Amino acid sequence: MRSYKAKAVTPIRLPDREGRTEALDAAGHNVFNLDSDAVYVDLLTDSGTGTMSDEQWAALMRGDEAYAGSSSFDRLQSAVADVMGFEHVIPTHQGRGAENVVYGSLLEEGDVVLNNTHFDTTRAHVANQGAEAVDCPVEGAWDRTVEGEFLGNFDVEKGRAIADEVGAENVPVVVTTITNNSAAGQPVSLANIRETAELAEELDAWFVVDACRFAENAHFVKEREAGQGDRDLAAIAREQLSYADAITMSGKKDAIVNIGGFAAMRDEELFEHAKQRAILYEGFPTYGGLAGRDIEAMAVGLREAVEPPYVAERVEQVATLGELLTEAEIPIVTPTGGHAVYVDAGELLDHIPTEQFPGQRLVCELYREGAVRGVELGSFAFPGADRPDYVRLAVPRRTYWREHLEHVAETAAAVRERREEYVGLEIVEEPPMKELRHFSARLESV
Ligand code: F0G
């Protein structure tokens, strides 16, 4: 069932095979270098790529563009209070702006931050403060053969052991990321959020929730966690965040906007400190690097995100893509998470060694076969990290129909058919910062 219909559409086209091969060569085998109009189904990210509702478009016109005291800010504040339970809000240009404001206020050189798994930008902001980011995923989070209901969980015992080792006084912040993007978008249980909050309290640390996909996480809690099935989705969404001292939010995910984010917190002093930092990096705290209209659309989207039919259809669509790929005998992480399907390219192209980037080869061939764009999250994107060679196919919110997903599965089936023909890739040009190489490096076949 679909609880919405389209009112505005964007034409897309499938370039012919020759055009796709040319585009891929011109892009140096890096799909970040492709023009978007050469892409037919774009599953690069679910961030800022969703479709706004007519209410959100209408809200754009109400945007109050005042430099200070904008009434759009008041509406964001009231949406964050109602949906997420926080009174103190600082808008930011996107999620990483919120991370800068919060972690820049809480961390110092030599600190250690524990997180179920740091998303790349979170890790970078922790490092930017001279602090160390330590991941505490549960056993099996990286093993696609392990099935579990809450594989995104924080391993509280591991967190405690690390704190014992480095000394609790050096761990000022404990974070949990819901859903756990870096662990295949797997959800985190309410019980686990509570236990992680208790760990933070034990350590006398701030407990921060990275709430980017909080609505999708709430949906999984309702579906899977004992005793949660009869509860209101909105109540679960709020309870998840009720244990946090602060949250960072990318509105580009579960506030269903193309740009925007915010930080929110309970403590007055932290709020004052973070506001000063926001003035420096984002803008005056009632606009935070956004136009009033963007804030207005984010306030509406935040409320829509916890409407049960929307989230159920969203998560179901990701599951459908997973089922179609499984039918096509493509190895994926199951159960699928909230926003994306993760394909095990290391297994699908097991004749390509990890140093020759099997994931990037898969990304290239998905483009060559069907102009489908995914993203590599393995040995190419994370040099030196001990990660499986996964390719993420992230589904934008309210944007594609089943036919698009069928095209993706047919494309993947065609790639599988030809897999013996594929060779590995080598980097021929890369930027100075290795951590950022996947955005701009150029590659060639070995
Ligand atoms: N935290 C998580 C868990 C994220 O997934 C992202 C972004 C951010 C923070 C940063 O938010 O992009 O608004 O600055 N994830 C995108 C992705 C980029 O493709 O997964 P941002």
From TrEMBL:
Belongs to the beta-eliminating lyase family. It comes from Halomarina rubra. This is Tryptophanase. InterPro entries: ArAA_b-elim_lyase/Thr_aldolase, Beta-eliminating_lyase, PyrdxlP-dep_Trfase, PyrdxlP-dep_Trfase_major, PyrdxlP-dep_Trfase_small, Tryptophanase_CS. Keywords: Lyase, Pyridoxal phosphate. GO terms for molecular function: lyase activity. It comes from the Archaea. Its cofactor is pyridoxal 5'-phosphate. Residues 42-410 form the Aromatic amino acid beta-eliminating lyase/threonine aldolase domain.
